[in-house]
Amino acid sequence: MNNLFTIDCGEILLREFSMEDVDALYELTSQPEVYEFLPDWRSTRARLDGVTNYEIPENKEFLSAVPHISGHNYLRLGMILKETGEFIGFCNTGIKEELREPNREIAYAISKHYRNRGYTTKAIKGLLQYLFDQTDVEHLNAVVVPRNVSSNKVIQKCGFYFNGEMEIDNQTHYHYTLNKAQWKSENNH
Fold first, then answer.
1. Is the per-residue pLDDT at 77 higher than 80?
2. Mean pLDDT for the chain?
3. Complete domains list, the chain, with CATH
4. Contact (CB, 8 A) for 104 and 139
């Protein structure tokens, strides 16, 4: 696993998905607390096929395109607890078809066993720093259902600005945005 792309975020690492993550990813995306807000991520044991045939190759494609990651390049990173090496969540970036361009978003989830410890905020900030410092990304989005209070707080803590409401799959979402110039000015870059 030493040859996998990794971002150090303090107590956690963001690491590209590997075959060893399949069971932990299945367990995570089987938690009602996760699939309630990310129904497209709800897992079946067929998840192995998705990780093998789509997610790992798409990660390699994304990383080989850096710094020019336009188009439909996805990067899916597991949140790994440094102390134990446990897969506790994910933090991803990709194209959100329902958004107007520029439509690159970030999405994330963390196990119910590791919530309210600041790990998700650290993961998002780590991914933001990587995307804004190492790639040509100029603008990011996040969409969160209003009743997901914790996620709304996290995305705001990470510097995203509320940009109104939008409908996705007949459900209201809050739309947040952040551009590179805003992020750099707020993070002294």
1. yes
2. 86
3. 6-186 (3.40.630.30)
4. yes
